[in-house]
Design a protein that fits this description.
The structure is a homodimer of 364-residue chains. Chain A has helices at residues 37-51, 61-70, 93-99, 104-113, 126-137, 172-190, 211-221, 233-236, 248-274, 277-297, 323-339, 341-357; strands at residues 25-29, 54-59, 78-82, 119-122, 147-153, 158-162, 197-201, 227-232, 243-245, 305-308, 314-316. By secondary structure, chain A is α/β, with parallel strands linked by helices. Chain A is globular, with a radius of gyration of 21 Å. Residues 1-16 of chain A have low confidence and may be disordered. At the A-B interface, α8, α9 and α10 of A face α8, α9 and α10 of B.
């Protein structure tokens, strides 16, 4: 049922692109989210209209067609690609790789591999997105580990944090590659030629950190990146760095701790306000600023985190993504595909590997 | 100038206690905080009055005596012990151990070692507190690494997080010992016979984590602790566990990320509120609930984090501790000394080591 063009790519390591230059095409895993296909289709429709993008909804053809009808969608930029299987949230990446190659996430990723889409967006099981990208698209040449790069709100705008969960045990070399990949994403996202790259650590001084970060610090200090040194946890949100690098265990803890704190503050604030008569009287007056604040800190609204270091654009969204989050993720995926960030990463990684093979200059 | 009693302790590994059973005596490093001795002396005075505790102010005799006079303190429960040196915030633990053995933190710790005080409280350089405790008091028999155990506000009360910075590279065995130590602190703090002990990880499932946490999970599951399994970052603040265990790098990042999020939300909230006319009108009505909230989440108010695993009670406070935070830290230090938590930890660690030396039961 899809009418995606199908130019196959045989170039090794460089992803094929859809030939129609006029409009980017995004493959959306429309079955994976916690709230079913409705927010996906609503988000896709809104993205198609606002960003003039084609969206291939991947999933159960009947379910998706019914839902499109229910939502009154007749936009020709939306199409459907049938996928008979769905990956559930609890399924392990190994199960997905073995038994779910007809799932919506797998087939959506194959559309990118086959040049029938420019990027894949999924609000489903993160492990499934990763394993599909790993097997179907493959790792970028030279990249040892891919990384999930989320963006966080700061006092001054946004910052990128990576890795937030793809790799739990990392070496200094992995962190260095994350910095190179995050730098390319940062250049694209912030329209800055030299984003400030920091290393998440437990003190600003050069000597602070654990064994891995201390070694990574030395490598990054000698790199061509705009390395601003160690960044402490409290400074991630102050905007002192555009790109903050850490291993996936720490990044995931940091991200979820942040959600926990924001949620706790919200609940305590409501409790405090509703516990006082004046607070209750004031509530209608501050409801709107509070809603704005919630939107600002709720990362489900932010529109997905790319998996960097694979041959193509993969955007992973929160399972409970709203239509707005899906729309934002499509917008971001489109931008990454247009900028060919995956190819720029490949170039940078190759350059860095070539550099590391050069004989060291004698120290004077 | 101190009149602390001076019963020396020659018992190996068990800290001497002040003989006067009637009143606990706390040695306070009154020079180390960011705001000078004033908040220390105010906090000490208030603690002496409210908790009937003796406090030995350790630091420059003249400075402290002048400050006491300025504050009009004549409470006989406060005394001064002269220490000619001060450790600055930037000084490394190695420098402190080599060159600052006449500093307020070192001499305050010696008072505990010599039985002239029951606990030491310091709002100074954390590394200096650790190194002084390590050299002067010594590690508890059987403990491989000490741990700093902070407490965090949760939706239902408080939770203990350890380690938050004493050890950046930990083995599964270290994490297991942190769990044992945190359990004893939790029993004391929450008055619970079996606090729920969790392991900070990136998913609730048993299989989630990095190499070290996965190994620690297995050991903890087989232990006598009330182990509730993995705790995700977002659940630290929901109160699903009383004691949450992690390595000091991750714990420190988690703590500082939390501060960063809270600070950012506060600033964004004020911005949102002051940006709307209704918000500004409502502000006087919600100022008091906001202040309560701030107090609830500001860990400087919470009163210090003990260094567990040394022969004595050492309480480390934030450098920018207020008088109220110092007072709370003294109260908490007094409680830990009364409960002899350090000795209970020694007993538990010895039992766990004995247990691990037993031949394993054959699996059936």
């Amino acid at each position: 049922m899809t009418n995606a063009s199908s130019v196959a790519a045989d170039q090794p390591n460089l992803q094929a692109r859809v030939t129609t230059p006029s409009r980017m095409k995004i493959a959306l895993d429309a079955m994976g989210g916690d709230h079913g296909p409705a927010p996906c289709i609503e988000g896709a429709l809104s993205a198609a209209q606002d960003f003039d993008v084609d969206v291939v909804l991947v999933g159960d053809e009947k379910v998706l067609a019914d839902e499109c009808r229910r939502l009154g969608s007749t936009d020709p930029r939306l199409s459907i690609k049938h996928a008979p299987q769905v990956v559930e949230m609890h399924e392990s990446p190994a199960t997905v790789a073995r038994k779910k190659r007809d799932s919506s996430i797998w087939i959506a990723t194959e559309l990118v591999k086959n040049g029938e889409a420019d990027a894949v967006v999924s609000p489903g099981n993160t492990g499934a997105s990763m394993v599909a990208s790993f097997f179907v698209l493959g790792l970028t040449k030279g990249v040892e580990r891919p990384a999930i790069a989320t963006s966080l709100p700061t006092l001054t705008g946004e910052a990128i944090l990576l890795d937030v969960g793809a790799n739990v045990d990392c070496t200094a070399q992995h962190l260095t590659q994350f910095a190179i990949m995050g730098n390319e994403y940062g250049k694209h996202l912030f329209r800055k030629p030299n984003p400030r790259v920091g290393l998440l650590s437990i003190g600003e001084e050069d000597s602070k950190g654990n064994e891995v970060t201390k070694e990574a610090f030395k490598i990054l200090k000698g790199s061509a990146l705009n390395f601003v040194g160690n960044v402490e946890g409290r400074d991630v949100y102050s905007g002192n760095a555009d790109v903050v690098v850490c291993d996936g265990f720490i990044g995931n803890v940091a991200l979820k701790i942040s959600e926990g704190v924001a949620e706790t503050i919200k609940k305590l604030l409501f409790k405090e306000i509703s516990g006082s008569l004046l607070g209750r009287l004031a509530y209608p007056l501050i409801a709107s600023p509070l809603r704005n604040l919630k939107r600002r800190i709720d990362y489900a609204e932010f529109g997905g985190a790319p998996l960097l270091g694979v041959n193509g654009i993969t955007m992973i969204c929160h399972g409970r993504s709203s239509a707005k989050a899906i729309k934002n993720a499509i917008r971001r995926a489109k931008g990454l595909a247009e900028s060919r960030v995956d190819e720029l990463i490949q170039r940078d990684i190759e350059e860095s590997l070539a550099q590391s093979r050069l004989p060291e200059e004698p120290s004077t």
